[in-house]
Design brief:
Blueprint (H helix, E strand, L loop, with lengths): L12 H16 L5 H11 L3 H13 L5 H4 L2 H10 L1 H23 L3 H20 L2 H13 L16 H11 L5
Helix pairs in contact: 1-2, 1-3, 2-5, 3-6, 6-7, 6-8, 6-9
């Protein structure tokens, strides 16, 4: 078993993905307790790249069940971190929801399933985070939806059907 803490308090995006993979695998193999994993994730997600890398891995890897099982200790640590965590989960919900429709249009069932899984994980996580904060960030994101898009630089905006679908998915949170 490798070291369970991070050497760099500000890891790169790729380093964060790799360490999240390592820790979640060890957790799945019962080599890490829920509490130890939650502490490590809290440490990793202190930086923007750490949070992005953790969620990129934990949301998208179909074999990682951490966000499906949501241990109480993890929920507590993520709630403690507040706004940055809620913001990144809301962004992932919006992107993955738009991708569901995109893959449906291309008749790409596998990628549609993967995007739906990410969207579902985001919804379930947002339901257990701080309600007022989730509602505030969702409201702000919906207000800015016309400025958001499918590309990293938002140069390709979401079309009207995607925006409608994003709103429908967000309504599943019942904030």
């Amino acid at each position: 078993m490798k070291k369970k803490t991070i050497d760099n308090p500000k890891p790169s995006f790729i380093q964060a993905i790799n360490v999240a993979n390592q820790w979640c695998t060890e957790w799945e193999d019962n080599l890490l307790s829920d509490e130890v994993l939650a502490d490590r994730i809290a440490e990793l997600t202190q930086s923007q790249n750490g949070a992005r890398g953790f969620f990129a891995y934990a949301l998208s890897d179909i074999d990682c069940t951490l966000l499906d099982r949501l241990p109480t200790s993890l929920i507590f640590k993520l709630r403690e971190q507040g706004k940055p965590i809620v913001e990144i989960v809301v962004k992932n919900l919006i992107m993955s929801s738009a991708q569901i429709l995109h893959h449906q249009r291309l008749n790409n069932k596998n990628n549609q399933f993967l995007s739906r899984n990410i969207s579902d994980r985001c919804i379930n996580l947002l339901k257990v985070l701080e309600t007022k904060l989730v509602a505030q960030i969702i409201k702000k994101s919906l207000k800015n939806l016309d400025k958001m898009g499918n590309s990293l630089d938002n140069s390709t905006r979401y079309d009207n059907d995607q925006k409608k679908f994003i709103r429908e998915v967000i309504n599943k949170i019942a904030y």
